[in-house]
Amino acid sequence: MRLSANHHATHFIFVDGLDVGCGLRVGKGETKIYFRPGVSTYEGNSLEQFRAFIHDTSSEYAKTWFGLLLESQLPTERAAEILAYERWIGANDLLAEESAQVSGLFRVGRRGMGDLARPGEWIWEVRITDMPFSLSGLVWVNAHTRAVRIFGPGMDISPRIGSLGKSDFKVTKVTTNDVLVVKTGTGRAVVQFTDFGEHSANYRWQFRANESNKIETGTGQVITKHRVLPSGKLQSANKFVESGRIRFEWSYGGREVAYVYFYPAEHEFSKEGMEAFDKALR
Question: DSSP label at 115?
């Protein structure tokens, strides 16, 4: 049985045997109520709360609430968008103007969703939009298993894991203490993030095409959103780390971490200690 109430912007959800919602936890034979302010239009969508938590990770409550999501295969909005877009391409003829954007984040509260999800698991909702003035379709993505359900014109399909699209990308969490060692057909590179800012990060890199070539070095910056600098100049978003001839995507993870995305078919990569920056290419 499920009951809910919303009073003075505080949200409570009752679900037998499950820990769901923002307001309370119900265990088997035990009820614990947490008077936690919520959003008056919450309606089960935790996306804005998650974005606020990523910006400020000091909340112990949020760490507990989102802990399972952060340890999942798809712990970021960008990871969900990449997978949803690939699966959409695998099931549809893609329009050049179509793009994927996360529009919701939900924790499953009851059984009955089949192969898509079990109670307690997190689901990303990704909208496929056209330019982005019209809706082309909707994709639900399980953050833990990568299972998806696609809704589109004349469609309602539930492909199993790995059945559509390549979807073999890996998500790796990194800090300023980590060094990424990456190898592709064009050479080898090492990359280290040096600091994280407001939806941005600075990094340093080294690249070597082969043993007979000299090591190239440089620095760079990535940002997730367009922004206006104090000078009034518009700085465009740049989501790709570039180190010589090697590039890969990143996304913001807060003031202490970032997430990077690799395809094993294209990249050999590992996460090493700080000493690797000066040793890995020599």
Answer: T
87: its two tokens = 């699966």
**All residues at 6 or more sequence positions from 230 whose CB lies less than 8 Å from its CB, including other chains:** none
Determine the 3-state secondary structure of 85 from DSSP: helix
> pTM for the full model?
0.74
d(CA 11, CA 43): 9
CA 163/CA 203 separation, integer angstroms:
36
* H or E element in which residue 83 lies: helix 77-91
Strand, helix or coil for residue 238: strand
Residue that is last in its domain, among 167, 199, 214: 167
pLDDT tens digits along 87-130: 887 766 666 678 889 999 999 988 878 888 999 999 999 998 88
d(CA 15, CA 31): 10
Nearest of 273, 264, 238 to residue 182 by alpha carbon: 264
What is the distance between the alpha carbons of residues 35 and 93, in angstroms, rounded to a whole number?
48
By the 8 A CB rule, do 67 and 151 touch? no
CB atoms within 10 A of CB 12: 18
What whole-number distance in Å separates Cα of residue 267 and Cα of residue 275?
21
Residues 58 and 35 in one domain: no
Same domain, 189 and 266: yes
Residues 50 and 93 both lie in one domain: yes
Q: Which domain holds residue 149?
A: 45-167
